[in-house]
């Protein structure tokens, strides 16, 4: 194997490994690694310097695509986690509220009264 093929091969392996470890789908991993695999394929057929420049450009373009796409995926994942966290906080609040109030009268029950008393005592 020629030395100029080692870089793209290692890059392909790193992309596949990172995608699998990160839990991305196979479709998404293949989209990420498509520019690198295509440059690897091109580098096997191209021998002169000007076409190797095209190969390097394809690799750089593929890396840029990976960074841009993964950045948007990370932002989407963060938004999803924040939304899940907010809904979980609402559920916890509702559970505490219902555990401390009487259903019919909406007045604090014994547990709610004791918690409110502790809070007021600590604030003194």
Automatic annotation (TrEMBL):
The chain crosses the membrane at residues 7-29, 49-67. Keywords: Membrane, Transmembrane, Transmembrane helix. This is Uncharacterized protein.
């Amino acid at each position: 194997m020629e030395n100029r093929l080692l870089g793209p091969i290692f890059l392909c392996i790193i992309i596949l490994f990172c995608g699998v470890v990160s839990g991305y789908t196979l479709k998404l991993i293949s989209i990420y690694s498509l520019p690198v695999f295509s440059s690897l394929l091109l580098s096997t057929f191209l021998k002169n310097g000007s076409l190797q420049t095209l190969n390097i450009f394809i690799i750089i373009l593929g890396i840029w695509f990976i960074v841009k796409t993964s950045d948007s995926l990370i932002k989407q994942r963060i938004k999803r986690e924040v939304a899940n966290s907010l809904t979980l906080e609402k559920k916890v609040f509702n559970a505490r509220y219902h555990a401390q109030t009487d259903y019919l009268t909406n007045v604090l029950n014994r547990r709610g009264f004791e918690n409110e008393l502790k809070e007021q005592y600590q604030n003194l």
